């Protein structure tokens, strides 16, 4: 028997590897600016408040586009409709170039109003202005990434994301160092130049992926396909918008949680504990906690990104067994990532903060609380990708709307309570994640008859994760006697990963046949 890896798993692996490297570099520059003299939690508050507004406009102009384009391209490719693939691509680039340009100009011109009236952090004005061109660059990049994903060239997307992050890290460190010397560690100036590094990185990433796109287009769109009629421009626009708008709205609502925090946390807390302390607490929440929490979420996004074109392709040829196979495997892998990550972050939160932020250790208890909602967020992320691949684009929108309502109410009610403060924002995130998961899982169960019982899988993984944590903490206690705290923490975390991985194989959480059915095809030599 000869084993062949499928494009589905190649895509997931390339994205996972790139996300691991991206997050390593992301942690490097985040640690640098957080521990940089004159930057710290206050600088992070300015930096992240500006970045979150940029991210919201970026969501409007680009997020949802790659998945929508990849879905359309994969469906057309399965029917060998190469003529309309090219037309769809060219029209999409034109449309979203305009959308990106509007977003760029809007952010630049409204920077002063947003900084002073919405965020109430006047120092973020310059950060917003220097970020504005990035919206235009990413809008075009997103369409091209969608094309590459639909053409089963997900590795190109992964590579472009990695290049962007590496450049962002390098530029951030270089630019901040230069500005810190020129401005005598001026926090506002350093925060602005750190955001300018993002703009530079997105521009160079666009140049890279555009060159790759030309190579793929010239090779793949000159093939002999079926003689389909050329679709009208208006029909293509309608189709792209019909798929992308719900995805974009869902992504906007999903990202609103951070924007809700950027608007409400400082605004509410500064009337209770003073502006300076309120900004510092928001800096802890928006930078240190988010940096760590986003790691498992970004790894898992590889699954949902690869799922959408894969399920769309199989749906186009009525391969129901293939669809169910991919769904069950993806949910299993997501759960296997989420539960041990939740246990690990909860148990090691204080040690992780001491390791990563030696000059700004405050806030580890927020990470403990945030970890409770992690598995629910991961599963919601994966199931949303499944539903979008199945054409159920409106469900994630409704779910995201409910999540936003819960988040807003939680912030308004809980943040002012004495002794809770910024924990109220985290509680809102957890409640939103739990409710969102319950809804999307019920919808999926009604849509697809899933064979594995999620409850049984969760119980097994909780037992394995508990064993992992108990064993690794015992190892930590032994090591701390002769080694320093940071080295003991690193070795204990690595041992936890090894223990969990071995226990997964010993207990046969994934059997050989399931891997072969999902990862590849078998054929006789």
Give a brief rundown of this model.
This protein is mainly α.
Describe what this molecule looks like in 3D.
With 525 residues, this protein is mostly helical. The chain contains 18 helices and 2 strands. The chain has a domain of 195 residues. It has a two-stranded antiparallel sheet with strand order 1-2. Helix 1 runs parallel beside helix 7, helix 4 runs antiparallel to helix 6 and helix 11 crosses helix 18. The longest helix has 42 residues.
How is the topology of this model organized?
Elements: E1 2-5, H1 7-35, H2 40-61, H3 65-78, H4 82-109, H5 111-118, H6 125-150, H7 154-183, H8 187-220, H9 233-273, H10 275-316, H11 320-356, H12 364-371, H13 374-389, H14 394-414, H15 423-447, H16 454-479, H17 485-506, H18 512-519, E2 520-523
Antiparallel strand pairs: 1-2
Order of helices and strands: EHHHHHHHHHHHHHHHHHHE
Number of strands: 2
Helix percentage: over 70%
Q: Approximately what portion of the residues adopt beta-strand conformation? A: under 5%
**Poorly predicted sequence stretches spanning 5 or more consecutive residues:** 1-5, 519-525
What's the average pLDDT? 81
Q: What is the strand arrangement across the widest sheet?
A: 1-2
Q: State the major sheet.
A: 2 strands, antiparallel
**Which secondary-structure class do the elements indicate?**
mainly alpha
Number of helical elements: 18
Q: For the terminal residues, how far apart are their CA atoms?
A: 6 Å
Q: What is the radius of gyration computed over CA atoms, rounded to a whole number of angstroms?
A: 23 Å
Overall shape: it is globular
